[in-house]
Amino acid sequence: MKVLVINAGSSSCKYQLLEMDTQRVLCSGLAERIGQDGGRLTHKIAPDTDKENKIVREAAFPTHVEAMELVIALLTDPELGVIKDKGEIFAIGHRVLHGGEAITDPVLVDSRVKEIIKECILLGPLHNPANLMGIEVAEKLFPGVPNVAVFDTEFGMGMPPEAYMYALPYELYEDLKIRRYGFHGTSHKYIARKTAEYLGKPLNELRSITMHLGNGSSMSCVKDGKCFDTSMGLTPLEGLIMGTRCGSIDPAIVPFVMEKKSLSPAEADTLMNKKSGLLGLCGYTDMRDVHSQVEKGNERAALALQMLVRSIKKTLGSYFFLLDGKVDALVFTAGIGENDDIVRAAVCDGLEGFGIKLDLKENAIRKPGARAISLPDSKIPVLIIPTNEELQIALETLKVLGK
């Protein structure tokens, strides 16, 4: 049973085709510069086949339709394809950023669902239009194949009101639905399930803290297997310092800078989302570059690293107390979380008083799969669990369809 997972952006489209009987990835790819000059499709086939592993096609993609038509052609190519016909695809799962409070679970797409996604453009102006476009393209090119929307905010919708409400006039929540939603939901949900499996613990008894650290970063506090708190808020801007996002700041900074620098709301949003974070502090977004600059004595890079670690530890501490100190595991995941031993070591440094003891040798080694990087006598295990948002979307898709 094959499921195609689609993550459509405004000028790009990521995809992955999975054989769900074995949860094996058959192929994946990325179409870039859709609607722009110099369109490019990078298509990767599972390495355990005898087919060419990586295929790159340069082509014009006026819209997402042309990009997906080329994807279908590669999927079904007589020599390079991994399926004989697109009719082999049982269902299509879509990553959708926002369903607001109207949709809190993965759902089979129909006209009502599409209308809600459209209504939530106010909350997700960059992502929801593209996500909806991806659904409509799939409906056109795969007639009769069910489409399932899996929302990035779903996991965060399990938070209690005291976690998701802001101390603003209540009518702003009633009128505009201003509240904390949380993002990276498919990743946090997947990691919660895999953490419970790793520990041999029922999911509904799990109490853990997940650190999804990448160019975009967020943390979740998991209680009884559900999201009890999360670092991102109304938008993915709140919370940790990130590659280009400032994270949580004094809100009075925004009107102050707008007035002093004569910025429009859109320009202020761009400043905080795309010109801040590690980039704004030291000029680099890739942690490998930041570490290299630190080694060269770049003081701003060292400051950026220290600030990043501090933002993670502050959130970690607050979640530790929200769970009454009863934590089953600390979990690192995503690009930085899975690969950056320096950040992991810095985050865990000084936590020995809480019984958390990192195995520095194990932490410095790169290995595939889920594993512990804490010492055997650590009261709270520290884990690395690779995330797999596409698999989670595919699993949710089959669940919605009763398979």
Which helices and strands, and how do they pair?
Layout: E1 2-8, E2 13-19, E3 24-32, E4 40-45, E5 54-58, H1 64-75, E6 89-96, E7 107-108, H2 111-119, H3 128-141, E8 147-151, H4 161-164, H5 170-176, H6 185-199, E9 207-212, E10 218-223, E11 226-230, H7 253-261, H8 265-274, H9 277-282, H10 287-295, H11 299-322, E12 329-333, H12 334-339, H13 341-348, H14 360-363, E13 371-372, E14 382-384, H15 389-400
Parallel strand pairs: 1-6, 6-8, 9-12, 12-14
Antiparallel strand pairs: 1-2, 2-3, 3-4, 4-5, 7-8, 9-10, 10-11, 13-14
Structural commentary:
The protein has 403 residues and is of the alpha/beta class. It has 2 domains: 2-151, 2-Layer Sandwich (Nucleotidyltransferase, domain 5); 201-389, 2-Layer Sandwich (Nucleotidyltransferase, domain 5). Helices cover 37% and strands 19% of the residues. It has 15 helices and 14 strands. The strands form 2 sheets. It has an 8-stranded mixed beta sheet, with helices on both faces. A 6-stranded mixed beta sheet has the order 11-10-9-12-14-13, sandwiched between helices. The longest helix is centred in the C-terminal third of the chain and has 24 residues, at 299-322. The radius of gyration is 22 Å and the shape is globular. The mean pLDDT is 93.
